[in-house]
Amino acid sequence: MTASPRPLRIALLSYRGDPFCGGQGVYVRHLSRELARLGHHVDVIGAQPFPVLDEVEGPGSVRLVELPSLDLYRADDPFRTPALAEYRGPVDVLEFLTMRTGGFPEPLTFSLRARQFLARHRGRYDVVHDNQTLGYGLLGLERHGFPLVTTVHHPITVDRRLELEAAATAVKRLSLRRWYAFTRMQKRVAARLEHVITVSASSAAEIVEHLGVAAGAVSVVPIGADTRLWSPDPSVATVPGRIVTTSSADVPLKGLVHLVEALAKVRTEREAHLVVVGKPQKEDGPVADAVRRFGLEEHIDFRTGLTDRELVDLYRSAEVACVPSLYEGFSLPAAEAMATATPLVATTGGAIPEVSGKDDETCLAVPPADAGALAAALGRLLDDPALRERLGAAGRERVLANFTWQRAAELTAERYRAAVATGAGQRARAGRGWRYVT
Prior knowledge:
Blueprint: E1 9-14, H1 23-37, E2 41-46, E3 61-66, H2 90-100, H3 106-120, E4 127-131, E5 148-151, H4 156-166, H5 170-179, H6 182-190, E6 196-198, H7 201-211, E7 218-220, E8 242-246, H8 256-266, E9 273-277, H9 286-293, E10 300-303, H10 308-317, E11 320-323, H11 332-339, E12 344-347, H12 352-356, E13 364-366, H13 371-382, H14 385-402, H15 405-429
Parallel strand pairs: 1-2, 1-4, 2-3, 4-5, 5-6, 6-7, 8-9, 8-11, 9-10, 11-12, 12-13
Helix pairs in contact: 1-15, 2-3, 8-9, 8-13, 11-14
C-alpha cells in the first residue's frame, strides 16, 4: 500500500492581496483555503492592502503573515509622504523614491522584503509560491532551500500596451511608460523561472511570447468559482432589466466605457439599468464622461464594500451578467456569474472564451470594444426568458465540470511537488544533499 504524500508547508507570496482590489487577492484567498482543505499548511505572506483569508477547520491551516510596505497607495491617502519614523531601512527609501519619480515600486520592494523574511526562516517552508510579483528579490531562492513556483495570471505588458494605445497625450504616454517600468524587471525574472503556473492556454502562449519563458516551464491550472457560495437561489427575486458587471479598475482593459455606450443603445427599446461592482469612476475619466454624455447617471449604480453574500445575491438578482473586457487572462467574474446560473454576455478578449464557452451554448459572445454587438446581445437576453434560462443552466454545468477552486488547488499542489522534486534532484547532483525539514 502506497503512503499518501505528506502535507506541504507553503509560503504564498502576494504583494497586493486585498480581494476587493482585483483578481490577485481573490486568487490568494480561495487557493489558500482549498490547499488547507487538502491538508497543506499555508502562510500567506502579504503587504497592504493585506489579504483577507478564510478560516479553515483542519486538516490543514491558513495563516496571514504581514510583511508591511510603506503603504503609499492607501485609499484614504494615495501617494502619501511617510513620516521619517516610518522608514525601516534602504528598501523603504527605494520604495518612496520610486513612487515620487512616477514609478510603481511594490513588485520590486515586496520581493526584497520577502527574500529577507525567507532568509530568516530557512527550513520553515517546503515551497515558495509567488503570486505574480516577479521581483528581483525572488531570484536564486532555490539555492537557499526554497523551490519556487510562480503564478503569472497574464503578462502585465498587455495592460501596458492597451493603456498606451488609449492615452490621449504625449505626457500621458510618458507617465504610463514610467509607471510600467517594473514590467522590464518582470520580463527578466520570468525568463529565468523553471516552474510557472498560469490560468489559461491564452495566457500561457502570451507568457512564452512576451516574457520569454520556456514553453516547457509553463503549466495551465484553470481557476474558477467557489461553487459552495456561487450557486443559484430561486428565493432571490430577479430584478427586471438588471445587468451586472464587475470592474475593479478604471482602465481601458476592462471595457466598461463600451458597456456604458451599449446600455444607452439597449435603453432605446426597453427599460434596463446597470450595476457595477467596483469603485465610482474618475470624474475626468472616459467612463464618467460616457455616463454624462449618454445621460445615464440615474441608470448606473456603482457598489463597493459588499459582503460575499451580498455580492452573490446581486448576481442572482440580475437578468444578465456581462464581462465587457478587452482582455482577460482568465475571468473570475465570468466563472462566478455562470456558477449562479445567471446568463452571461462576454467578449472574446484574451482567455474569456476558455471560461465562458461557445456562443449560444453557454453564453452570448461578442467582439471586444464593440458597443453595438454588446447592446444587441444584452437586448436579446433581456427580451428572451427561455434563452436566459437555457444559457444560465448550461453555464452553471460548465463551471461545475471545469472551473472549481478545489480542482485548482489539487493541480497546484502537483506543481509544488514537481518543483520540490526538481530542487531535490539538483541538490543531489551537486553533491550537497537535501531533505525535508520536519
